[in-house]
Amino acid sequence: xxxxxxxxxxxxxxxxxxxxxxxxxxxxxxxxxxxxxxxxxxxxxxxxxxxxxxxxxxxxxxxxxxxxxxxxxxxxxxxxxxxxxxxxxxxxxxxxxxxxxxxxxxxxxxxxxxxxxxxxxxxxxxxxxxxxxxxxxxxxxxxxxxxxxxxxxxxxxxxxxxxxxxxxxx
Length: 170
Hints:
Helices cover 28% and strands 29% of the residues.
């Protein structure tokens, strides 16, 4: 009897909610304001640490730590192999290929890594080691990453990836 009472109460609520003809879901945050905020946070981090960085067209800051060889950059459909360390800005390390002794291989354009990581690698040459500051909109955004009840990457986290491009296979 109690179950039918709840169903009876939920039905009008469901009808009301489904009758709202809102085809667009409003984002939880204003993406322009968030982009500006993160840019300021990255600039502040760079200033606090006396670092000078360049910036890509997407707004990803980077510092070349070790120059690479040649003039070839990976492009869409190239298979690449990289070693990397990922940390949260002002935070802890969350991943490293060095700890597993297994470089990461992926194909540019297949979406197997976050957009910012892929865009970062496309800037590099073989042998180059670069530190990238990736805004959340090109990483895990509003979702972040959790494992069980443990937060691995917070919501809206700016990430730092130190990446070494080991190999490009066309």
